[in-house]
Write a structure and sequence with these properties.
This protein has about 625 residues and is an all-alpha fold. The chain has a domain of about 80 residues. It is extended, with a radius of gyration of 51 Å.
């Protein structure tokens, strides 16, 4: 849903940037100025402001005042007695009046006259070298050509305006040009380029302090992240945009952003959170009577209820949407609702009822000329006929399906929508294959394969590769059948890997969301944080006390063991000491006894020796005896 992508466009189409207060009071005041003005300069200025005040609610009245101001300005421009300064002033006012008239014809749908007046205004500003006026005309022409689908021309005008805006330091204008260029690249499918331009636009808006433009730019960036499958990035920027819209008290765009946030949660499988955001958006849309956003929200809620099996509630919501009328985009919103109802009946295999709803949707889209959606509905009706043909075996249904697929192809070709062309040519080729017209089948399938490869859409390539594989097998071309089988497997694996990656991201996101679900408010989160901290502290203290007790008991136990061991050793030592002392006493006694015995022996020996010595002659006597014997 690109509700906010073109938010900033209208602001810059109109050149009158003066702040408007209460519309009735301002208009009355300006009318008095215009009536009482003594000079045409003041009179034209008042007329231009009155015209601006009536846009876009009363464009015819606005045109009347702008044209009146233009006529007075042109009359004065022809006055040759004017000074150069006065001439420039009237030409500037003439350029602004021409710009307002260009926007009037744009609203009326007269693109040719709108373009003519934009160019006249541009020429007028170029004559007086009013760079600011020139850049705004470039912007207006860029938007005009964007609306009619001439995107290359639109990009040229946006680029020309951007160069001048950067030259004169017009950050606000430059941010708008970058934003509108991003819109074009986004619609063309060049998401990386679109993101680059949106980010540059955001930076310019922040530098310029553009509080009104910043939230719309944040929303655009979020939309790109969503299209790229970056749900986390999309949510971050959607929520930032939501906060900005809330500060501005812009409830309509808050509702639209809540719808987008709900869609993100739905895509990651968090249905409760999706419904919560859809319900919040629904209340705001009802409060502001914003039927455009209300229709989207009701359709999304109904779709979820239908998936949950609550078909009655889903149909009731769809019928509520159908009763709403007169809102911007009414036909498109009603067609969307009719298609969703058709999907419900298609799932129930009530093909005829589904067909009626698709046909009604198609009729509405044809009235407003929305060819891209026309092509989609044509394909949906063709699918119903194809199902009937496959089930019944009646080729008539397949031939009707073929006609509608060919119509869808033609419609996509008219708007030069490559992805739609690739899809349609594959469907046409598949029906020709079922009708056994293998030559035509090959022609369309090869075209689909070529476009799908250029676009780089793995899903389209996978589908057409499968159909080509079946066709080549049927016609006996096994070499090409094998090549397309390999391509089919390659693309299938590529899609599976990407799906796995996205599933991983979504699973991570879902975990993060569920983890934070209890924190419904900052106060609640803070309270939980304090409670958790206190609990953690208590647990830590209890744990520490337990550890201390365990350590104390363990220490006491160890001391008792050691004490027991020491006591045991002490007892053993005491016993050993006692034994040793007893043994020592015995040894001492034995020693004394031995000493006494030894003394007795020695005394005996000494006594005997003395007796011997007493009985034996001495040495002198012995010597005399020996001398006597010699003689």
């Amino acid at each position: 849903m690109k509700v906010c992508r073109y938010i900033s466009c209208w602001v810059f189409i109109i050149l009158f940037s003066e702040i408007l207060f209460s519309q009735t009071n301002v208009i009355d005041s300006l009318k008095r100025i215009e009536k009482n003005a003594k000079h045409d300069t003041a009179r034209v200025q008042a007329l231009l402001k009155i015209g601006s005040a009536f846009m876009p609610a009363e464009p015819d009245t606005a045109y009347f005042y702008w044209n009146k101001g233009l006529l007075i300005a042109e009359k004065n421009i022809k006055n040759r007695s004017l000074s150069v300064q006065e001439l420039i002033s009237f030409k500037r006012k003439s350029g602004r009046a021409l710009n307002g008239i260009a926007n009037y014809f744009k609203i009326k749908g007269n693109i040719e006259l709108s373009s003519q007046f934009f160019h006249k205004s541009l020429q007028t500003f170029e004559e007086i070298r009013d760079t600011s006026g020139i850049t705004k005309e470039f912007l207006g022409l860029g938007i005009l050509y964007t609306d009619i689908g001439e995107l290359n021309k639109a990009l040229d005008y946006f680029n020309n305006g951007l160069k001048l805006q950067e030259l004169i330091g017009d950050k606000k204008g430059a941010s708008s040009s970058l934003n509108n260029m991003g819109n074009i690249y986004a619609d063309q499918g060049d998401l990386d380029k679109a993101l680059e331009l949106y980010l540059r636009s955001l930076k310019k808006k922040e530098l310029a302090g553009d509080s009104l433009g910043i939230p719309g730019c944040l929303h655009n960036i979020a939309s790109i992240y969503k299209d790229q499958g970056n749900d986390k990035g999309a949510l971050e920027f959607y929520n930032s945009a939501l906060l900005k819209f809330k500060k501005l008290d812009d409830k309509q765009r808050m509702a639209a952003t809540l719808n987008d946030i709900g869609n993100i949660y739905r895509s990651i499988g968090n249905i409760a959170k999706a419904l919560e955001n859809f319900d919040k958006g629904l209340k705001l849309a009802e409060e502001t009577d914003d039927k455009s956003t209300l229709v989207y929200l009701l359709n999304n809620i109904a779709s979820i209820r239908n998936e949950q099996g609550d078909t009655l509630t889903a149909i009731a919501n769809y019928e509520r949407c159908l009763k709403m009328e007169g809102y911007p985009g009414f036909a498109s919103g009603k067609a969307m609702t009719l298609c969703n109802i058709a999907t419900v009946f298609r799932a129930q295999k009530k093909y005829n009822t589904a067909m009626d709803y698709y046909q009604n949707a198609l009729g509405l889209l044809e009235k407003i000329g929305d060819k891209q959606k026309i092509a989609t509905v044509q394909s949906n009706i063709a699918v119903l006929y194809e199902i009937k043909g496959d089930v019944s075996g009646d080729k008539t249904y397949l031939e009707k399906a073929l006609q509608l697929y060919l119509l869808s192809l033609k419609t996509n070709e008219e708007i030069n929508y490559p992805k739609g062309i690739a899809f349609a040519t594959n469907n046409v080729g598949n029906i020709y294959f079922k009708l056994k017209n293998y030559g035509s089948a090959l022609k369309y399938l090869l075209r689909s394969k070529e476009i799908s490869t250029q676009l780089g859409y793995p899903e389209n390539i996978r589908n057409v590769a499968k159909n080509l594989k079946d066709l080549y097998l049927k016609t006996g071309d096994h070499k090409n059948a094998l090549q397309n089988l390999e391509l089919f497997v390659q693309m299938r694996d590529s899609i599976n890997n990407e799906s796995t990656r996205k599933a991983s991201i979504k699973s991570q996101l879902k975990y993060e969301f569920e983890k934070q679900a209890a924190a419904d408010s900052v106060a609640h989160a803070k309270e939980n944080e304090i409670k958790n901290a206190e609990l953690a502290k208590q647990k830590a203290e209890i744990s520490a006390k337990k550890n201390q007790q365990y350590a104390l008991f363990g220490g006491l136990g160890l001391v008792l063991v050691i004490a027991g061991f020491m006591y045991n050793r002490f007892k053993i030592t005491q016993k050993q000491k006692k034994v040793i002392e007893e043994q020592k006493s015995i040894v001492e006694e034995q020693k004394k006894l031995v000493e006494e015995k030894q003394k007795e022996v020695l005394d005996s020996i000494h006594y005997a020796r003395r007796i011997q010595q007493a009985q034996m002659p001495n040495e002198k006597m012995v010597s005399k005896i020996f001398e006597r014997l010699k003689k």
